[in-house]
Amino acid sequence: xxxxxxxxxxxxxxELKLEILKHLKERGAEYEDFGCDSxxxxxxxxxxxxxxxxxxxxxxSRAVLICGTGIGMSMCANKIRxxxxxxxxxxxxxxxxxxxxxxxxxxxxxxxxxxxxxCDIVDLxxxxxxxxxxxxxRINKVMxxxxx
Length: 148
Ligand code: RB5
What we know:
Blueprint lengths: L4 E5 L4 H13 L4 E3 L11 H12 L5 E6 L3 H8 L6 E3 L3 H9 L5 E5 L5 H13 L6 H11 L4
Parallel strand pairs: 1-2, 1-3, 3-5, 4-5
Helix pairs in contact: 1-5, 2-3, 4-5
This protein binds D-ribose (RB5).
The site of D-ribose has 8 residues, from helix 3.
């Protein structure tokens, strides 16, 4: 599977996205930027959905999604079958959501956290492996809820 990271933001997350893209480049991570391309007002689903689709289609391994609060992006991403998006504002949650939830999308709020913390969260999200085991049963139950 590709190691490319899908990155997307709305206008609220645009500046933080630039910092994260710079960070990804510095750590030698491949990424694809799904927009937006300026701080002009846009609708976050228009950027969230294509980035998540790239993950589902295997063109990207994980998504990093940023808006003002991270909430709109996480609500939208979690509506998409097969996406497990985690809204993180701390490093502990970023690590745990990979270990226990096998999250394939990370959402962050640019109006909530600063760039330094956001980059640390991205690193943990990318570097932490899923634990498997008992968590597989739980994740399967979560994914089955999509059929209700
Ligand atoms: C845009 O003002 C803001 O609503 C958006 O970035 C996000 O926070 C929505 O959840």
